[in-house]
Design goal:
Strand content: 25-35%
Order of helices and strands: EHEEHEEHHH
Distance between the termini: 29 Å
Oligomer: single chain
Number of domains: 1
CATH architecture: 2-Layer Sandwich
CATH topology: Alpha-Beta Plaits
Bound molecules: flavin-adenine dinucleotide
Strand order of the largest sheet: 4-1-3-2-5
C-alpha cells in the first residue's frame, strides 16, 4: 500500500453543493477501489490524502491531477505504508472554513495558513499530522 498527499487550488469558486457532488462520486468510486483518505478544503485550496493499493492510488491520483476543476497540483508525500490512517473513510471531508482554531489546539497557525503554504510543502510529516486532526471531525454526505 502507499499513502499519497497533495495540495491544489480550485480554478473557480467551489460551492457547498459542488463539494458535496464531488464527494458523493469520490466516495462511491473509492469504495470500489478500496481507497480511503481525507479531503480538506479551505479558501479555494485542497489538501487530500489517498491510501490503498499502490497501482490503484497512482492511477486515481493521475486522474485527479488531470481534473480541470483544480490546478497547481503539488505532491507533498508519497510513501509505502502497511496500515491505513483513515480506514473508516472512503473519503473523509472537512471544510476548514467552518472550523475554529480552538478545535485544533496547537495547530491554529496552520489552520490560518493557506493549505498550499510553505510549512506544509517543506515538511511532509506536518501535512500528515494536520490531516489526522480531522479524522474524527469530518462531515458525512447522505
Ligand atoms: P467523469 O466523471 O465522466 O469525468 C470525465 C472528465 O470530466 C474527467 O476529466 C473529470 O475530471 C472531469 N469532470 C468531472 N466532473 C466535472 C465537473 N463537475 N466539472 C468539470 N469537469 C468535471 N475522484 C475519485 O474517484 N476519488 C477521489 O478521491 C477524488 N478526489 C478528488 C479531489 C479533488 C480536489 C478533485 C477536483 C476531484 C477529485 N475526484 C476524485 C474526481 C476525479 O478527478 C474524477 O472526476 C472522478 O474520479 C471521475 O472521473 P472519470 O474520468 O471516471 O469520469
Amino acid at each position: 500500500m502507499i499513502e499519497y498527499v497533495y495540495t491544489s487550488s480550485a480554478v473557480g469558486p467551489f460551492t457547498e453543493d459542488d463539494l458535496l457532488e464531488l464527494l458523493g462520486k469520490a466516495r462511491k468510486n473509492n469504495e470500489n477501489l478500496g481507497i480511503t483518505g481525507m479531503l480538506l478544503y479551505k479558501d479555494g485550496d485542497f489538501m487530500q490524502a489517498l491510501e490503498g493499493n499502490e497501482d490503484r492510488v497512482r492511477e486515481l491520483s493521475k486522474r485527479i491531477a488531470e481534473d480541470p476543476r483544480h490546478t497547481n497540483f503539488k505532491v507533498l508525500l508519497e510513501r509505502s505504508c502497511t496500515q491505513r490512517e483513515f480506514p473508516d473513510w472512503s473519503m473523509g471531508f472537512q471544510n476548514l472554513n467552518d472550523i475554529s482554531s480552538e478545535e485544533v489546539p496547537g495547530y491554529s497557525t496552520f489552520l490560518n495558513s493557506p493549505l498550499r503554504s510553505l510549512p506544509f510543502a517543506t515538511d511532509p510529516t506536518l501535512c500528515r499530522r494536520f490531516l489526522l486532526l480531522f479524522k474524527n471531525k469530518t462531515i458525512s454526505v447522505v
